[in-house]
Amino acid sequence: MSSPCSTPIAWETLVAYWAADLAEDEQDAVEAHLFACESCSAEAARVAAVTESIRHAIPPVLSLELLARLRARGLRTREQPIVQGQVNVARVGGDVDFVVLRLGGLSLRDAQRVSFEMREEGTGRVMMTIDDSPFDRAGDALLLACQAHNAALAANVIVDVRTHRDSGDEAIASFTVHHIYG
Amino acid sequence: MDAEPDAQLVREIAGNGAQRTAAEAALCRRFAPRIRLYGLRHLRDEERARDLVQHVLCALLLALRAGKVAEPDKLERYVLGTCRNSAQRMRAQDARAEPLPHDALAEIMNDAELAAALDERGPALAPAALVRCYGALDARAKQVVHLSFQRELSAEAIATSLALSPGNVRVLRHRAIAALRRCLDQNAEGGS
Question: Looking at the DSSP assignment, which residues form a beta bridge with residue A146?
Fold first, then answer.
């Protein structure tokens, strides 16, 4: 076990380091300390375990470019269309690395920005909001990535997609998805 | 040997005595995790980070055996400098580390021993645990974490997007990561 450091690097500084949010001289000072201090290096590793796992996780909403890169890396995917006005059942099993839920029927050609909110069906608890989401403009769709470990979250969700247009108009589309894992 | 200061280990290696191999292994165990973290930060890829570890340790061992480290009591600066140069070359060429003429590291530790040195920080995070803990964050914290680490936006850009100050963003960000870390530690203790 390492000895405690007499001048430990603050947690917020370590988080900023992993977010690449330090000035160059600050970053150099942090790195010089980390190479000389076992206990601060261990703490930096604890921060990195979280930040880098998030960084490399497949995000909940995909751009077409990211989807293409993930497929190019060899990840197995399957697409499922999701439509408004009905309960969509999405099966997520071991046959693929992730399922792409294509929330379609949107009108995105003149969209300036697309935002979305996912909430638990029944309780209405908001699970996730993204104010400026990637979207498939030509395909008039939003692409959600669903993986097996999402079974840790609520299975039955409602996704509200809000299209913001240059004219100032907004359109809302709602999708209901019931996930079945395994 | 693992408790010896760097300078003492350097002297053991340069002296080429009976303790040389043990001293080299101790230095490798000490610096491997730090080099890996540097690689993760600057190369953003686990495989390339491990590549950096092997390259830098190999270069370090060759330099120590040849007596080329001028300030043994500031060995960490030498290692950091070697990391910077190697990572810069890897980034510039978008390539793996260039091979060295002699694989000194393989004489000191095998792949399993190196893996053990790198994994001393604990097991990899279980994706389901991370999803559960992330799901427990409030909506604003999730947004800041997503924009910081998946969209890789600066605090200033996030602040503009969310109508906050950059200072607020930084506070939200480090508190969210702290909350995730606590949640994951509790999950690990609970065995889930």
Answer: A99
Per-residue confidence band for B151, with pLDDT thresholds at 50, 70 and 90: confident
Closest-CA distance, A86 to chain B, in angstroms, reads: 26
- The interface residues of chain B toward chain A in range 79-98, judged by CB-CB distance below 8 A, are 79-80
Amino acid at B48: R
Which residue in chain B has the smallest CA separation from A117? B139
Nearest CA in chain B to A11: B174
The encoded tokens of residue B67 equal 């007596």
B192 has pLDDT over 50: no
For residue B57, the chain A residues in CB contact (below 8 A) are none
Q: At residue B114, what is the residue type?
A: L
Question: What ipTM does the predicted assembly reach?
Answer: 0.90
**With an 8 Å Cβ cutoff, are A129 and B34 in contact?**
no
pTM for the model stands at 0.83
Pairing of strands A142-146, A111-120: unpaired
List chain A residues with CB under 8 Å of B162.
131
Q: Over the stretch B59-70, which tens digit does the pLDDT of each residue have?
A: 999 999 888 888
Please enumerate, as own/partner, the contacts of B87-96 that have beta carbons within 8 Å and a separation of 24 or more: B87/B38, B87/B39, B87/B42, B87/B43, B87/B52, B90/B43, B90/B48, B90/B51, B90/B52, B91/B42, B91/B43, B96/B48, B96/B51
Contact between B126 and B187 under an 8 Å Cβ cutoff? The reply is yes
Helix (H) or strand (E) holding A126: strand A126-130
